[in-house]
Design brief:
It is a single chain. Helix content is about 35%, strand content about 20%. It is of the alpha/beta class and about 475 residues long. Helix 13 runs parallel beside helix 15. The chain starts with 10 loop residues before the first helix and ends with a strand. The N terminus is likely disordered. The chain binds S-adenosyl-L-homocysteine, iron/sulfur cluster (SF4) and FE3-S4 cluster (F3S). Its main location: cytoplasm.
């Protein structure tokens, strides 16, 4: 979700399945290899690190070649129909590998597992394990059951599980930036959305375990954390005695205080819940990045009401004005759904005019995709023809591309603080890193500078998605 300064049609197109390869430092080894691939949002990628941690602890090592794996896990997404289709296509490739290696165990994890439950075993014969997002601690048992010759399903959702005590193993490749899950589930019931059904009730993780995880990351050389939740603004944790209660602004402050050297990002903010207190906290700490992902979904109040977003156009604009007032220069990105049930041409125009009002830095833009079982699927009709959805989406994308360009051009000539992430993908002579506003910056390698350093870069030019400059 954060990994792009490019305007893309689909989150999950930007994040095709990605394999996770990790070192096993537990000293245990059962001689079996795990291959794990993730789809969907950052929460899923973060969950895969928890799953990897559980599996490494039972003695697995990982591989990035699924053909040689003893266990294949695919961590799935249900957000739109094409996200599910992509997983089904991938399973066909795993089926070929399983013919060659019949004792291979294939497990489906995540949101699609939760949505389809045992039905998955009927629909996809190669699948041995179906496990939902709250049942990962049970994976070693489920694997044992499969070893004993049965199929295994655990899709129980929990009101408590936050995996707070599990130290996620990190991708070994970057070592600079990490995702930290601060809550799970969602209670919002936006009418189009499958997440409340696949992820269950909202629950917040112990604030102390979050701060400890961030401190540990810092001590291990990490310089950037992104706090993750479906709606971070409704984070609320209290201790058992009820003597301590922490809201999101307070959590943000505690995390920012771990070290001024650690940059703090977060996602996703909800327009109905983001408070001035959060904005003031962002303004107060230099190391909290000035970037907010504030999904609007639609610029029209009637559609927002049908979507059950619980804010209207004016409220959203008010929140944008508060951001501009309290944190001047803050970057803002959004999610837009076009072609929602009964959306008229005039209502679509209001989404476009909202985009003009905000001038988003980035946007993730989607055609409405009806999801079985959601309130919209039950009560509304998915009545906008695909050609119309497509045309509206193109208009939205074109507008966003123009806005992204304007926003990048506003950075030209400015000196920015960039956290060096590594060599640029295109050239070993360039470094890449992000500025405070989350834009990718490319600049020539200079001796003595290494990934994890903060540097000042003067921006000289830009492409459609990247700033290019030189170190000062
Ligand atoms: N919790 C976040 C969003 C999580 S899903 C929030 O409330 O903003 C990410 C994005 O996927 C959503 O913001 C929405 O724009 C899009 N999305 C969700 N359900 C969808 C559907 N049925 N069809 C198309 N896009 C959808
Ligand atoms: Fe889905 Fe709405 Fe929850 Fe976001 S806030 S996960 S869109 S129900
Ligand atoms: Fe997809 Fe589940 Fe995330 S549906 S977007 S992986 S919460």
């Amino acid at each position: 979700m954060f990994n792009t300064g490019i305007t893309v049609k689909e989150h999950d197109e930007a994040r095709q399945g990605e394999a996770l390869v990790l070192e096993n430092q537990t000293g245990k080894n059962n001689g079996r290899k795990l291959y794990i691939e993730s789809y969907g949002c950052q929460m899923n990628f973060s969950d895969s690190e928890i799953v990897a941690s559980i599996m490494l602890d039972t003695g697995f090592t990982t591989t990035n070649a699924y053909q040689e794996a003893d266990v294949i896990f695919i961590n799935t997404c249900s957000i739109r129909e094409n996200a599910e289709q992509r997983v089904r296509n991938r399973l066909k490739e795993f089926a070929v590998a399983k013919v060659r290696k019949p004792d291979m165990v294939v497990g489906v994890l995540g949101c699609m597992a939760e949505r389809l439950k045992a039905k998955f075993l009927e629909e996809e014969k190669l699948v041995d394990i179906v496990v939902g997002p709250d049942a990962y601690r049970d994976l070693p048992n489920l694997i044992e059951r499969v070893d004993d010759g049965s199929k295994a399903v655990n899709v129980l959702l929990s009101r408590e599980e936050t995996y707070a005590d599990i130290n996620p193993v990190r991708l070994t490749s970057n070592g600079i930036s990490a995702f930290v899950s601060i809550m799970r589930g969602c209670d919002n019931m936006c009418s189009f959305c499958v997440v409340p059904f696949t992820r269950g009730r909202e629950r917040s993780r112990d604030a102390h375990s979050i701060v400890k995880e961030v401190s540990d990351l810092y001590n291990n050389g990490y310089k950037e954390v992104t706090l993750l939740g479906q709606n971070v603004d409704s984070y609320k944790w209290s201790n058992e005695e009820g003597t301590e209660s922490v809201n999101f602004a307070q959590l943000l402050e505690r995390v920012a205080l771990v070290s001024p050297e650690v940059r703090v990002r977060f996602s996703t903010s909800h327009p109905k819940d983001i408070t001035d207190e959060v904005l003031h906290t962002m303004g107060k700490y230099e190391n909290i990045c000035k970037y907010i992902h504030l999904p609007v979904q639609s610029g029209n109040s009637r559609i927002l009401d049908l979507m059950n977003r619980t804010y209207d156009r004016e409220w959203y604009m008010g929140r944008i004005e508060a951001i501009r007032r309290i944190i001047p220069g803050c970057a803002i990105s959004t999610d837009v759904i076009t072609g929602f049930c009964s959306e008229t041409e005039e209502e679509h125009q209001e989404t476009l005019s909202m985009m003009d009002f905000v001038q988003y830095d980035y946007a993730y833009m989607f055609m409405y995709s009806e999801r079985p079982g959601t309130p919209a699927a039950k009560k509304l009709t998915d009545d906008i023809p695909t050609e119309v959805k497509n045309r509206r989406l193109t208009e939205i994308i074109n507008k966003q591309q123009a806005h992204s360009k304007i926003r990048l051009e506003q950075q030209l000539g400015k000196v920015q603080k960039v956290l060096v992430e590594g060599l640029s993908k295109k050239s070993d002579l360039d470094f890449c890193g992000r500025n405070d506003q989350n834009a990718m910056v490319i600049f020539p390698v200079i001796e003595g500078v290494k990934p994890g350093d903060y540097v000042s870069v003067r921006v000289e030019r830009c492409t459609s998605a990247t700033l290019i400059g030189k170190m000062e």
